[in-house]
Amino acid sequence: MKQLTRRFFLVCICLSGLFLGNKALASSESDSVDFHLLSLEYRLYTEELSVDERNTLLMQKATLFHQSNRLSEAIETLLRGNLYGGNDSIRSAVYTRLAYYNYLLKDYKKTQSYLLENAYYFEGTYLANQNLYLEILTHLQLQEWEEAKEKFNRFAALYTLNYEDARYFETHPLPRLKDSEKAVSISHYLPGIGQWYAGYPGKALVSGGIQAAFVGFGLYNFYTGYFFSGAFTGIGLFYTFYTGGARHAGYLAEQTNAKRLTEFNEPLSRIIVESVQQKSIKKGK
Fold first, then answer.
1. Domain presence at residue 163
2. What pLDDT, on the 0 to 100 scale, is given for residue 130?
3. Rounded-to-integer distance, Cα 260 and Cα 120, Å
4. According to the UniProt entry, where is the signal peptide (predicted)?
């Protein structure tokens, strides 16, 4: 069976090589990526590899998926590795990539999970602290302010940030976030008040005004004897805008939160990323 698998991969690789050898026939850059992916898969299936060699090849394959913006496949590839045996540096690199790819997918809970595993397995070594920057960014996205502040202070000391950047949490107040459920709830009591709470007084006045107008239209039709028009036009439209306005208030609260989080997180994230990049450049010299 293994011999048959080896032959199958050889045929596929040879065919891919023939097509890629002729530039006129190469349809896109993805052809080259697929060829390299197939080559790595061939080695994984046919060679007798140690744990470290297998994990290294899987990381190479995951990198190709990442470069092709196929992050889910990159994660699936890394999970085929051995996370509990082999060289500590290689294992830690696998955990780091799993955390990073999940961060790019905005799955911050999984990011945090892999970071915690890395910190647990390599506690007391430099490997436990090498992802400090990613831990801070993840805490920020999860709105875990105290944890983010504590680790940022460690980061500031480790990367010798300037005085102004190091005091970011002291000089920038934490974002005051809105409760989207509260915005919906209070809109049911008084139309428009939810939008006002969410930070959009103009939209609150428009929403409340429209709903008041439909109520007035319905009552006027009842008063003049047009009960059908009053019920199905005035009151019907009021109910539609009433329920829709409440949902819209919740959406606006989430928009306000997103804006305030971005205003707080982006400058801090920029400080962290630029500091890591500068240190990497200095190491490379």
1. no
2. 85
3. 33
4. 1-26
What's residue 127's pLDDT? Answer: 84
Taking the C-alpha atoms of residue 80 and residue 78, their distance in angstroms, rounded to an integer, is 5
| Total number of domains in the chain | 1
Q: Quick check: helix, strand or coil at residue 49?
A: coil
Query: Which amino acid would we find at residue 188?
Result: H
pLDDT tier, 103 (very low <50, low <70, confident <90, very high otherwise) = very high
Q: Is residue 50 part of a domain?
A: no
- Tokens for 185, please give them: 């709830």
- The pTM of this model reads 0.76
User: DSSP alpha helices (H): ranges in 22-87?
Assistant: 29-46, 51-67, 71-78
Residues 188 and 235: their CA atoms lie apart, in Å, by: 15
pLDDT tens for residues 66-81? 999 999 999 999 999 9
**How many whole angstroms separate alpha carbon 19 and alpha carbon 150?**
55
Cα–Cα dist 72/66, whole Å: 9
- Does residue 198 fall inside a structural domain? yes
- The answer to whether residue 139 sits within a structural domain is no
The domain containing residue 196 runs over which residues?
Answer: 180-266
Q: Read off the tokens for 182.
A: 């509260």
Is the separation of the CB atoms in 163 and 174 below 8 Å?
no
